[in-house]
Amino acid sequence: MPLLRLLLLAVVIGAGAVSAAESRPNVLLVLLDDSGWTDFGCYGSQIDTPRIDQAAREGMRFTDCHSAAPNCSPSRTGLLTGRTPSRVGMYSYRPPDHPMHLPTREVTLAEILKGQGYHTGHFGKWHCSTLLDADQPSPQDQGFDYTLGTDNNAAPNHLNPVNFIRNGEPVEKTEGYSCQVVVEECMSWLDSIGAGQSADPFFACVWYHEPHTPIASPPELVEKYQSQFPDLSQKHAAYYANIENVDIATGKLLDKLKTLGIDDDTLVFITSDNGGLHSFSNARLRGKKSNVWEGGHRVPGIFRWPGHIAAGTINDTPISGVDFLPTVCDIAGADYPAGVGLDGVSLADLFAGNADRVERERPLYWFFYRLNPSLAIRDGKWSLIADTNDAQRPKSHGLTAEDMPHIKASRPEKFLLFDLSEDLAQKHDVSAAHPEVFAEMQRKAVELHAEVVAEGPRWEIKDYQGGKKKVWDSY
Ligand SMILES: [Ca+2]
Fold first, then answer.
1. Cα of 33 to ligand 1 centre, how many Å?
2. pTM above 0.90, yes or no
3. Which H, E and C letters describe the chain, residue by residue?
4. pLDDT digits (tens, 9 = 90+) for 394-424
5. Residues with CB under 5 A from ligand 1 (ion)
6. I need a surface site. Which of 155, 232, 237, 266 has the fewest CB within 10 A?
């Protein structure tokens, strides 16, 4: 072989080896439960979150980051599939033992990364199926090798929870605060798979139960906030302490990456599954958890990957939980799931500094059928809010059999248009001042909603009654 060709080959092999190693970073997804966009110091909160703030300083902090839905189960579904949750059939909150779940046929990010040779672990709240129901897919069925966590909330609260399940087996006794327990388990798992030494990377989901109610927080932290802010209620002091406890746990996890020497090889994403319940958690926004107003789904969004994402950057691009799967696929060199429409787009070019905006074929979209308004789309600075034609029908807290045909036949109506660049609080409907934008946004909302509900599965709901019915209004 001529020398030049040999040299070229060596260069190509060398480049390939480097990019293969670089293109399979570890991925750590840290998810809070019900934390709004202003619960961390770096987003203006008075709660002490030094470790999360440090992660933000070392990475890219998004100010316009959204959960895929304004509620737990659908939002988690969006993160794992890159698809808008109603398209997958997660139309709503998932009550215990409910037939609605993340279907087996969906390709999750854990399955994709497992196919790329990743170790996969899930720690904390799952809420995508019933864990001990053989008829529903477990996290293992969705691509996770190792799991410790719960169906839904930690019970009776975050301290010494009694309902943890490890790899399909109920755990007899769990001691400590839930966030610390799941982080300790994740760190042991990292040791067990030889993280830092193994050639194979990992994908770890650390999905805290905090700060979802019922909360329990270390008393010394509660006292600290009570003395620091004498006017703060006991309930709010406990909430502040809850967030700080999560920050301490997250700090341990980040220290572990450093100890293992994999800090630069790990993409970390810190976010929440929906907006908060308290007004201080959703500062300057309209609405709260479960609403399609900004307060229901604008969440913290911090990406950290030293050496690959410029430190100390603040980005105001609108992004969503559905972007996580395509982003990680791009970075890990994995193919997108075949034959399914993704709603998210890759953020890899934003990270690399190759773009300052992302191009979307479809606007961002949120649908939560129980609440009025029930639908929102977002295109640039424009936010369109709508009811569906089903708005005035009384509904139960969870999805019932009679809801299914109504969801399938639903269409948006009663539209409002907001310019978020001028009116983040969504107080002033500007539809009359911008008739062309308004018409175009309505057209997009109607088209996208029709497509989503046509694709979403129809659940057979036999036993679940749903309880008291009412019209759920958030205007
Ligand atoms: Ca939640």
1. 4
2. yes
3. CCHHHHHHHHHHHHHHHHHHHHCCCEEEEEEECCCCCCCCHHHCCCCCCHHHHHHHHCCEEEEEEECCCCCHHHHHHHHHHCCCHHHHCCCCCCCCCCCCCCCCCCCCHHHHHHHCCCEEEEEEECCCCCCCCCCCCCCCCCCCCEEEEECCCCCCCCECCCCCEECCEECCCCCCEHHHHHHHHHHHHHHHCCCCCCCCCEEEEEECCCCCCCCCCCHHHHHHHHHHCCCCCHHHHHHHHHHHHHHHHHHHHHHHHHHCCCHHHEEEEEEECCCCCCHHHHCCCCCCCCCCCHHHHEEEEEEECCCCCCCCEEECCCEEHHHHHHHHHHHHCCCCCCCCCCCCCCCHHHHHCCCCCCCCCCCEEEECCCEECCEEEEECCEEEEEEECCCCCCECCCCCCCHHHHHHCCCEEEEEEEECCCCCCCCCCCCCCCHHHHHHHHHHHHHHHHHHHHHCCCCCCCCCCCCCCECEECC
4. 999 999 999 999 999 999 999 999 999 999 9
5. 33-34, 72, 273-274
6. 155
